[in-house]
Every structure is written in C-alpha cells, then in structure tokens.
C-alpha cells in the first residue's frame, strides 16, 4: 500500500494500490463467499485491518463501535479465509472473496444478510427470514 498522490487516471487505470480511506480513516469491505458469491458481511477496514488481512490471509476489520481491530472469528473460530481481494475503480471499497469456516454472522446465521425486506405497495415494509 502506498500514500502516493495519484491522478484520477493513475488511480482508476494504473497498477499502484493506493487505498483511499474516508475522513474517519476507513474503507468499506464487502465479503462474499468464494464459492457461491453470496454476500456474507459488509464492514469497515482501516489501514491496520487491511494490512493484517493482506499479510495473514484472514479477514480483519476495524470495529467502529469498539474502536478496535478484530479478526473475524477470533473468538468463535468462524474465520474468513481470503481467496481474492478486489478493489473498486477509485480504490475506496473492497470486495473480498473468502472461504468461511462456519457461520459469518454473530447471530449464528451463515450470512449477516439473512432477512429480506418484503415490498408491500401502500403498506409498511416488513422483514421476512430468508432460507439460510
């Protein structure tokens, strides 16, 4: 990773990895199952979490609520093993293809996205459980 100032052309078309963190020092990380492409979790990474993820091959995040670095699965054992990391065009978001070693959500669900919003014309929306 580099702190290099890049032109828009260099950032969008070049080969230098220069993540663009927001004003809080974070970028968004979307983790998908490497086999099924199912979205497992969306969280945030700071530079330290990103460095740990790239160095260890285990997904790390920055917990905004705890103000701390954490490795997904450090207490449950349900780690996310990195298969591939993709960066978007302006380098402020990542998609991480991973192999989960168990449920991803702290609720025990396979994915954090286990509920669907049921669209109901003219009525309040409600949540329904998806098959997990």
Per-chain topology:
Blueprint: H1 8-13, E1 27-33, E2 39-45, H2 47-56, E3 60-63, E4 68-71, E5 80-87, E6 93-100, E7 115-118, E8 126-129
Parallel strand pairs: 1-6
Antiparallel strand pairs: 1-2, 3-4, 5-6, 7-8
Q: Span from first to last CA?
A: 36 Å
Output the strand order for the largest sheet. Answer: 2-1-6-5
Alpha-beta content class: mainly beta
Instruction: Report the uncertain regions.
Output: none
Mean pLDDT over the residues: 93
Describe the structure.
The structure is a single chain. The protein has a single domain, classed as Roll (Ubiquitin-like (UB roll)). 12% of the residues lie in helices and 35% in strands. The chain contains two helices and eight strands. It has a four-stranded mixed beta sheet with strand order 2-1-6-5, covered by helices on one side. A two-stranded antiparallel sheet has the order 3-4. Strands 7-8 form a two-stranded antiparallel ribbon. A hairpin with a 5-residue loop joins strand 1 and strand 2. The relative contact order is 0.18.
Write a short abstract of this structure.
This protein has two helices and eight strands; from the N terminus they run αββαββββββ.
List the main descriptive attributes of the protein structure presented here.
single chain; mainly beta; Ubiquitin-like (UB roll); four-stranded mixed sheet; two-stranded antiparallel sheet; 132 residues
